Amino acid sequence: MSNRFDDKVVIITGAGSGLGQASALQIAKEGGRLTLVDLNQEGLEETKNRILEEVPEADILLVTADVSKEENVKNYVEQTVQQYGRIDGFFNNAGIEGKQNLTENYGSEEFDKVVSINLNGVFYGMKYVLAVMKKQGSGSVVNTASVGGIRGVGNQSGYAATKHGVVGLTRNSGIEYGQYGISIKAIAPGAIMTPMVEGSLKQMDPDNWEEVGKQFVEPNPMKRFGKPEEVGYLVAFLLSDQANFINAAVIPIDGGQSYKY
């Protein structure tokens, strides 16, 4: 196993499940010291236990936080610096899908909720982590966007708007911070079978969601859902020194979905 993250400190938000959990496991296998952040304490404990089963010597700090609250974000950054002295990588991943509805019927409160987590939370994370990385003169950030951030997604106004915003923040900040030795990029996952995607399918048809899932991936050139660990491999690469010259870029991981017309 590669040790690309020996002596490296990585923060992962949304680490209690899905892409965050898979990425945490991969980076721990490669020697990384981790701050795992999530609103769900039980999910954090599950992720920690999964990692320790495979990497008993893993160094893990758990921080419960609501990323929509700036003080919570500032706290997980400060706790990381206090514990480890630096931040080498940041997987800025926490997010929600929100409810599905036509734009005219999309609730204003729901829209605000999705924005506060998916966009404000990403911005707050970048704000405080980049300040630390700038002082160090090094670091790597990976933001979670979506195919919904590079094309439309019907019935998901809040989600699509925020993921387009994540793409904008990524490109803009990459231009700003490249001169300080920091690379910033975003991933744009397609249909990856995570708890969030399962919840989306259940919104469509609670009693027949697995069949809906089969129909959902039929237009995909690869005819299947992606696996969280496949995203974890990509995130680990992008946060490693091997990807330092990839900056202000958005990388789809979607089986070709983004390119099929």
TrEMBL record:
Annotated keywords: Oxidoreductase
Short name of any one Pfam family annotated for the protein: adh_short_C2
Superkingdom of the organism of origin: Bacteria
Coiled coil: none
Keyword Oxidoreductase carried by entry: yes
The keyword Cell wall biogenesis/degradation is annotated on this UniProt entry: no
Transmembrane parts of this sequence: none
The family this protein is said to belong to: Belongs to the short-chain dehydrogenases/reductases (SDR) family.
Name listed for the protein in its UniProt record: SDR family oxidoreductase
